[in-house]
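User: Here's a structure from my thesis project, written as structure tokens. My advisor, Dr. K., wants to see whether a designed sequence matches the one we expressed. Can you design one independently, without my sequence as a hint?
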């Protein structure tokens, strides 16, 4: 098996199991542990995995988020549920902002149901999908392209956002703890903050499995958002903490607000 094929096979295993063991990989592919070490080093350098003692994982850490190519293949049912709930906030004729991320990419495609719309985004997956669609005025934000996030980021992106205004911005996050939303990448944080500042209303989208986790950078206070949508109910302690802070959580799976 060629190195590229082996590394893709490792990615597939990570998507299925979220973590892999060094010894198991060496046995599975009949190669040395040093070869697997080099494979994992390559994947880590590409931002695909996070090496841990004895193996690797794609679970987000304080300073790590898995590659877009992995995230777009995970949790599709949850993404669809949240996107459908978010779609209720959109009316034809609106100007809508959608940020980076695989969750946002699912929502971006669903927005076709609400056209005509003006759509502002730095999400390359959405740009590619909607660029030839009728009744969609697509404002594609420029900047430095990030393969890891499949998005355009940086000063150019932020300055463009400062000169635009939207009726609503949809912002996704990989981590919520207490009453704060977090992200591990400072360029992504700045782009998301610029979208929040440029929209009349804001909606936060977060998988319930990421509630109770932190990342390196504080992105925003949950009170900054008009609506917060998650796919399923998080741990009761988290729901209670949010309720004490008068923060409502919309649960997409049961179409109720807690």
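Assistant: Designed independently from the structure alone:
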């Amino acid at each position: 098996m060629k190195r590229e094929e082996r590394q893709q096979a490792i990615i597939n295993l990570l998507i299925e199991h979220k973590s892999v063991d060094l010894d198991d990989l060496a046995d599975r592919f009949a190669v040395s542990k040093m070869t697997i070490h080099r494979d994992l080093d390559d994947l880590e350098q590409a931002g695909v995995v996070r090496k841990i003692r004895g193996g690797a994982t794609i679970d987000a850490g304080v300073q790590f988020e898995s590659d877009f190519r992995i995230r777009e293949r995970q949790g599709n049912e949850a993404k669809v549920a949240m996107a459908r709930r978010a779609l209720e906030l959109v009316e034809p004729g609106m100007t809508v902002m959608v940020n980076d991320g695989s969750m946002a990419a699912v929502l971006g495609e669903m927005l076709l149901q609400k056209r005509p719309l003006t759509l502002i985004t730095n999400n390359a997956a959405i740009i590619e999908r909607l660029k030839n669609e009728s009744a969609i005025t697509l404002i594609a934000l420029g900047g430095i392209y990030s393969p890891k996030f499949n998005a355009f980021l940086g000063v150019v992106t932020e300055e463009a956002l400062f000169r635009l205004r939207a009726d609503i911005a949809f912002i996704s996050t990989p981590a919520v703890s207490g009453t704060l939303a977090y992200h591990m990448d400072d360029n992504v944080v700045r782009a998301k903050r610029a979208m929040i500042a440029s929209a009349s209303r804001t909606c936060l989208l977060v998988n319930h499995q990421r509630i109770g986790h932190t990342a390196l950078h504080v992105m925003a206070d949950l009170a900054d958002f008009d609506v917060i949508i998650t796919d399923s109910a998080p741990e009761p302690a988290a729901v209670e903490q949010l309720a004490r802070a008068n923060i409502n959580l919309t649960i997409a799976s049961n179409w109720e607000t807690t």
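When you compare it with your expressed construct, this may help: The mean pLDDT is 87.
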